[in-house]
Each structure stands twice: as C-alpha cells, then as structure tokens.
Automatic annotation (TrEMBL):
GO cellular component: cytoplasm
Function per UniProt: Transfers the 4'-phosphopantetheine moiety from coenzyme A to a Ser of acyl-carrier-protein.
Protein EC: 2.7.8.7
Organism this protein belongs to: Reichenbachiella agariperforans
Protein name listed in UniProt: Holo-[acyl-carrier-protein] synthase
Taxonomy of the source species: Bacteria, Pseudomonadati, Bacteroidota, Cytophagia, Cytophagales
Catalysed reactions, semicolon-separated: apo-[ACP] + CoA = holo-[ACP] + adenosine 3',5'-bisphosphate + H(+)
NCBIfam families per record: acpS (TIGR00516), pantethn_trn (TIGR00556)
MF-aspect GO terms: holo-[acyl-carrier-protein] synthase activity; magnesium ion binding
Length: 123
C-alpha cells in the first residue's frame, strides 16, 4: 500500500556553482555520494539528482524536515547496474524503522539543465 509520494525538481546550475564549495557539499551529502558524483562526467547533474531525491523523500514522508532529519541521513546509493536506492542513516533510519513504513522506491533523471526525483514509500 502506498503511504506517500514525493517529487522534486532541481536546476543543475545551482549545483554547478557549488562544486568547489566542499563545506556545503559535506553538509548536504555523504562521503559516498560526494565520491560518486565527483567521478561522473557532469557532477552537477548527479548532485542535483541526489538533492532532489532527499527533498522528495521528505515530501513523501509527510513530515517535512521535522523530527530532526538531516540531509546526510538520506543517502542515495546505486547498485551495480546503476539503479538508485535510498539508504537511511541515523535518526532518519530510526524513525523509519519504528514506523509502519516498509519500502522506498526512487527514480532519478537528469539533463544538462534539470534533475528530477520521484519517490514512493509503502506500508
């Protein structure tokens, strides 16, 4: 059963300007996400998509940034085929594990100008 749906769109230029701002990147992204994005041909597209996924997760959850959630507690990982998934850490993981929520499904897409994330949480 679907418990929540979230979507977000981000202009990639926002992140193109922040690529050299390591303190900002370290505030929003995990070391795994930073390493992944920086090795890609157009890192701003990948950072933008991950940021959109974090925002879409909070929208699907329906709590916004309440409960002390942190951007870095919502990590986007990719499997061997490149498919994205959400990995929760810290307080975000504890909150999810205590809830009736079961699975998180995420889809990311990006172009040279925009990145979008679509996310579904099930019970």
């Amino acid at each position: 059963m679907i418990a929540g749906i979230g979507t977000d769109i981000v202009e990639t230029d926002r992140f193109k300007k922040k690529l050299l701002n390591l303190p900002f990147l370290q505030t929003v992204f995990t070391p795994l996400e930073i390493a992944y994005c920086q090795k890609m041909g157009h890192p701003e597209q990948h950072f933008s998509a991950r940021f959109a996924a974090k925002e879409a997760y909070m929208k699907a959850l329906g709590t916004g940034w309440a409960e002390g959630a942190d951007f870095k507690e919502i990590e986007v990982q990719n499997n061997a085929e490149g498919a994205p998934s959400i990995h929760l850490l810290g307080g975000s993981k504890r909150y999810f594990d205590k809830s009736e929520l079961k699975d998180i499904f995420v889809s990311l897409s990006h172009t040279s100008t925009h990145a979008v994330a679509y996310l579904i949480i099930t019970k």
